Amino acid sequence: MKKITSPAAFIGINGDGVISFGSGQPDLPPPKNIFTHLEAPRLFKYGLIQGEENLREALAKEYPQARPQDFVVTNGASEALDLAFRAIYELHGNVGVLVCRPYYYSYPPIIELAGLTPVYTDLIEGKIDLQDFEKKVRGVKAVLINSPSNPTGRVEELQTLRAIEKLCAKRGIYIVSDEVYKDLIYGRENYLIKGKNVITINSFSKTYSMCGLRIGYLWSRDRQLVDKVVDIKVHTSMNTNLLGQEMALHAMHTPRAFIKKQRAIWQERRDILYGGLISLGFDLWKPEGAFYVLPRIKNSNRVVSELYHKHKVIVYDGEWFGAPGRIRLSYALDVEKIKEGLARIKKYIRGKEAWLK
Fold this sequence. Notes:
alpha/beta; Aspartate Aminotransferase, domain 2; 7-stranded mixed sheet; 3-stranded antiparallel sheet; 10 helices; 12 strands
């Protein structure tokens, strides 16, 4: 049996009876109105490196005191993160970036490839330990916040986010706030971290189920950093695809009721998966946002490989997220598949209950 050591082994796999709790790709349909008015010849030409003006103008209306020139439209949130950290390197050299652990598995490579050094603060019960954060932030130039979180599904407390906002503003530390799940919070509205030192990262992938179009963006009031990001993008990806930007613009005209309805579906799925795992004896945090759970299980490397090869169930190894001894499951799949996947997991762990302790 081939050991699975990376999420790359699973990305794009579907069909053939496989139940995938792996990829964080919404299975819900995008808004229907995104497919209209896509015949304009300009959409097949080169575009502005910073992003089309009409989309940036629309984005500026979504944020307080924002201007279109404060935004850069990118190839998904991943490029926005990459460009932000490359820009920080160009402006400040090899500095430290404080990362919360568990983390999204691409964070450390993105930071390191930009020439920066990740520094880790470990979460307690899936949330920031403010005391440890305050101690370690003194030695870095940037911090990376992800709330709601992938892989934990947890949402940071308001007082924690406000304390970080104040602390970093005082010390001149960048806050890179990855908010791609901001519309998938079940208990309250998203808290927007504010300040000249803040770089907000977002995309259309999760809210509007538009992952494959790769439309993301960053927003910052730091003019020097935004200009540096655009300078770098000129020589890497150039403009972000115009068809996708046009579809993103149409998506922004979607009534909020669409997002509210989608969120209710995610919450129902969360309750089914969370409740099912609890009934099987797993120990896990109840997600407050996004669409992930991160239950404990011993031998997580072995579990990932055996569940796939013997039961056709995809889960991700917590070790990939800096959380060994856990597995990450996404509930971005329909209810019947969730139930079938739980049944297969139940069959797999029979006789292995000690692994859940």
